[in-house]
TrEMBL record:
InterPro entries: Glyas_Bleomycin-R_OHBP_Dase (IPR029068), Glyoxalase_6 (IPR041581), VOC_core (IPR037523). Residues 4-118, 125-239 form the VOC domain. Gene3D superfamilies: 2,3-Dihydroxybiphenyl 1,2-Dioxygenase, domain 1. PROSITE patterns: VOC. Pfam families: Glyoxalase_6. This is VOC domain-containing protein. SUPFAM superfamilies: Glyoxalase/Bleomycin resistance protein/Dihydroxybiphenyl dioxygenase. It comes from Streptosporangium roseum (strain ATCC 12428 / DSM 43021 / JCM 3005 / KCTC 9067 / NCIMB 10171 / NRRL 2505 / NI 9100). The lineage of its organism: Bacteria, Bacillati, Actinomycetota, Actinomycetes, Streptosporangiales.
Amino acid sequence: MTSQLVALCFDANDPLRLARFWAGVLGWEMANDPHDGIVLLPSDDTRFRIRCLPTQEKKTGQNPMHFDLTSTSLEDQQQTVERSLALGARHIDIGQRPEEGHVVLADPEGNEFCVIEPGNNFLADCRFIGALACDGSQEVGYFWSGALGWPLVWDQDQETAIRSPHGGPKITWGGPPLMPKTGKNRLHFDLAPPVHGDRQAEVDRLVSLGATRIDIGRRGGSRVVMADPDGNEFCVLTPR
């Protein structure tokens, strides 16, 4: 048995505003979160929740992961862009070329996301959240495949992607060159050990796959804070 990906967590200066934005974009419901924030509950085949957690730190630099949202037509793409802008998003330039068909936006706290043009073959069998696209090495793609038990659905030219056997978004890593890491990531994964599992045994397994234990962001004893082989933070929660 492997860990379950239970949440993608956003550090937020205004968790309620950020949660309302993503609830409006994705059509997910909001709920109170026992882990000190606000949680969004998926209304589709996404295999994880979104948590918005309070922080006083301001965003600096580009996030190493972002959502790729799919479109069924050019009109559908434009509707997603217009809905996002009405909810508080803005257009940004991260070096995309004019001939590229996707639209790059930032949410109210500056977290980047893309609205992908219709006809994208790689995301053709995905729903609205097509992928969580990450900056990362081939090694880290292999790590997360082993950590979650999700098979590789792409492994070419040092680019990797995994997907749950039950569907949902892909998680992709673009390979080198990697962005320099500056401080703690604003987005991180929360994992839960197998049901009735031993958290320490799962932490030991993740270490054997290449993770390390760290202290950044520790809040009490409800979670163990770790980093994957590329240094990206994630948390292993207490079994329920």
